[in-house]
Structure to design on (734 residues):
């Protein structure tokens, strides 16, 4: 590494922005993929991989991706919950790679909920 | 592929002792097994501060906080949480007296009330990666200083912030820098900046943690300080007992050199500065500024009288600016966020002079009979009660609070009546204790104050360098008197004699160690005089600690004749038939207390 300039500091910071958001747990949007045994069997892994790929390709920095257990509606797996800041969380069911791509583009990036794919708005209360 | 989760695992000294290395290896292995290495990243961080709960793992972005993790928990944890997304409840933190575990870090009372400035990057960065530090605004304060501020402006900013020395003295940092710069300019001399990392207080590890979890913050602070006072060379004097801190500091210095942040022509401004690390040999007194500088020069580490200040004639008789680790770590934040912001935290008014208050935060290491032992950073002015009962979670085993000692071995003991005292430099000094470097030892109802005073005076006797008479002789005589009192041979005039020697130390000792050494004895007498009287007049130790003054006995009403105590007694002092009352032969008893500990029926008592 050669000597760095004040501008380089900013570049390094910019490059690490995704990591910083991840470590502080403060994204603009959060996608929870339900990865219970049922979810994994129904193809939740594919959904997760598709999301990771989208995030990489579009170089999205402010969306955090996480997993949770079975949501109790095993017949409608794979499922994911999308939470955009300032909007109620939405549960999407019967997902495919194509559907999640569309959801990412419209709901996560533009804030437009895709009603046809959604189960319901809101999330169960947690203890 | 981008990572979706960061698993931050604590690599502080305490967690390493509790196998966090092995745990990290085994997580790595399990992640590989589940094909998760591409999406889940393992990050080694510095200490989180909640050392009582170690080894600690924080999972982000979920914020899930795991504690007390063992190697055997790892396969379950990785499969359940990282693969299937189900956080593992049994590894979460459950506060004392409660049943429900708390899943995420910000909800845990220990963390909730802390304000992080010096420890701003703890648990968030890998201390061995300079880019992690830069990503959290690291070295941007340095860039700002060297490219847009004159040295005098930097000094003014630090003065206006009201920052006072975190090593114990509480001297305003800005004024120190200004005097050093002036002395150097007046005599056209080179100047030195020094970092005091010789943290010697028993049970205190604030500085160690800062160096282990964020070494670059100290280095950046020092470079800024060097620019302000006009120094080209700096030293870190680190105690020998800190191998991990030393390693990380050396790594950080090497990285900073590679990036051109240390060395010649920093940021192309013509400013040159480099740092050398010097290891201390483990003497407590070398934390004192003049002793430290003597030791740096290769001489015996003993202090000198300070009518000539080290900012004028310090290391090799050059103007030298010495600050402690925590003070240096505060500097970049003050530069970035401004003195004005800094003054919004803390007590008093520093608009006229930095002496007017205590601004910012202070890191304390909370130890002793408190539930959540660990490292906490709180705004100046919070009360002792807040620290001990809210953050610290109260006294262990539901016992009663008795005293807290602030400021290390030469700090004073403060009783329950002073629990609402705001913690800042001046309040603590006025109460007869001190801020010191931030040690905080809590004692419960089973703590004997004569014994405590004796313990700390014994420590100071061995650490006194012996150069001046009041400290060398005074401490030794004080220890003899305390020994006498605790063994039941105290005389009525002993309390007065202790006070007299203590005052002599305060006025006559050469350095801060000797001057403050009498604090434990003076405050113990001031706040717990009854206990001294009980030892001297009634020949009793009310807390049941001083061996010579207690006697063990067995309550015949409670004794079931289970024979356990008789079997455990190492000297065969207990006799009795099975299912019959047992008795202790006090002439044989060595008062080891084993019977008291093992009895299942509370039948053994102390009197």
């Amino acid at each position: 590494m050669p000597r760095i300039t004040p501008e380089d500091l900013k570049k390094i910071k910019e490059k690490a922005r995704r990591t910083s958001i991840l470590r502080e747990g403060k994204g603009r949007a959060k996608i929870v993929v339900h990865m219970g045994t049922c979810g994994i069997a129904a193809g939740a892994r594919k959904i997760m991989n598709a999301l990771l790929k989208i995030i990489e390709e579009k170089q999205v920095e402010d969306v955090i991706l996480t997993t949770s257990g079975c949501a109790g509606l095993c017949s409608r797996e794979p499922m994911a919950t999308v939470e955009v800041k300032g909007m109620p969380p939405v549960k999407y069911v019967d997902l495919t790679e194509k559907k999640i791509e569309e959801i990412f583009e419209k709901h996560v990036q533009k804030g437009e909920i895709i009603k046809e794919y959604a189960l319901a708005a809101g999330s169960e209360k947690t203890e | 592929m981008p990572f979706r989760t960061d698993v931050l695992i604590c690599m502080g000294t305490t967690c390493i002792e509790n196998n966090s290395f092995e745990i990290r290896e085994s997580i790595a292995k399990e992640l590989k097994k589940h094909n998760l290495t591409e999406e889940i990243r393992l990050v080694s961080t510095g200490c989180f501060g909640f050392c009582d709960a170690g080894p600690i793992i924080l999972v982000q972005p979920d914020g899930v906080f795991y504690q007390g993790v063992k190697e055997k928990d790892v396969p379950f944890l990785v499969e359940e949480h990282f693969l299937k997304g189900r956080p593992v409840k049994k590894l979460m933190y459950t506060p004392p007296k409660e049943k429900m575990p708390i899943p995420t870090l910000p909800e845990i009372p220990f963390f909730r009330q802390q304000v992080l400035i010096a420890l701003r990057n703890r648990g968030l960065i890998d201390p061995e990666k300079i880019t992690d530090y830069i990503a959290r605004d690291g070295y941007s304060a340095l860039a700002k200083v060297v490219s847009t501020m004159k040295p005098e402006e930097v000094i003014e900013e630090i003065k206006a912030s009201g920052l006072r020395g975190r090593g114990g003295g509480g001297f305003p940092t800005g004024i120190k820098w200004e005097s050093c710069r002036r002395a150097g300019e007046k005599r056209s001399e080179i100047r030195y900046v020094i970092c005091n990392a010789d943290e010697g207080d028993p049970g205190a590890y604030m500085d160690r943690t800062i160096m282990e979890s964020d070494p670059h913050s100290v280095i950046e602070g020092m470079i800024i300080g060097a620019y302000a006072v006009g120094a080209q060379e700096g030293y870190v004097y680190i105690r020998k007992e800190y191998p991990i801190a030393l390693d990380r500091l050396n790594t950080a210095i090497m990285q900073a050199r590679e990036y051109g942040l240390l060395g010649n022509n920093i940021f192309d401004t013509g400013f040159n500065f480099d740092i050398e690390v010097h290891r201390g040999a483990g003497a407590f007194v070398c934390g004192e500024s003049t002793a430290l500088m003597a030791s740096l020069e290769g001489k015996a580490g003993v202090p000198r009288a300070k009518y000539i200040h080290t900012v004028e004639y310090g290391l090799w008789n050059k103007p030298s600016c010495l600050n402690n680790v925590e003070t240096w770590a505060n500097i970049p934040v003050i530069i970035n966020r401004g003195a004005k912001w800094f003054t919004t935290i803390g007590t008093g008014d520093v608009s006229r002079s930095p002496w007017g208050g205590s601004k910012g935060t202070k890191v304390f290491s909370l130890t002793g009979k408190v539930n959540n032992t660990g490292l906490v950073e709180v705004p100046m002015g919070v009360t002792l009660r807040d620290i001990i009962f809210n953050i610290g979670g109260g006294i262990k085993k539901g016992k009663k609070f008795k005293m807290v000692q602030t400021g290390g071995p030469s700090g004073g003991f403060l009783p329950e009546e002073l629990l609402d005292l705001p913690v800042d430099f001046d309040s603590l000094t006025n109460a007869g204790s001190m801020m010191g470097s931030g040690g905080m030892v809590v004692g419960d109802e089973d703590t004997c104050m004569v014994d405590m005073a004796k313990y700390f005076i014994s420590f100071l006797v061995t650490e006194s360098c012996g150069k001046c008479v009041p400290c060398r002789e005074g401490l030794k005589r004080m220890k003899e008197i305390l020994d006498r009192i605790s063994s039941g041979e105290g005389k009525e005039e002993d309390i007065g004699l202790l006070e007299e020697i203590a005052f002599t130390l305060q006025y006559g000792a050469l350095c801060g160690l000797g001057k403050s050494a009498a604090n434990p004895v003076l405050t113990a007498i001031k706040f717990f005089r009854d206990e001294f009287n009980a030892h001297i007049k009634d020949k009793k130790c009310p807390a049941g600690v001083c061996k010579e003054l207690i006697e063990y006995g067995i309550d015949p009403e409670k004794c079931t004749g289970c024979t356990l105590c008789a079997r455990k007694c190492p000297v065969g002092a207990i006799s009795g038939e099975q299912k019959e009352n047992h008795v202790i032969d006090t002439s044989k008893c060595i008062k080891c207390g084993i019977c008291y500990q093992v009895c299942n029926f509370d039948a053994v008592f102390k009197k």
Q: What stands out?
A: The mean pLDDT of chain B is 92. Chain B is about 40% helix and 15% strand. Residues 469-486 of chain B form the longest helix (18 residues). The longest strand of chain B covers residues 271-279.
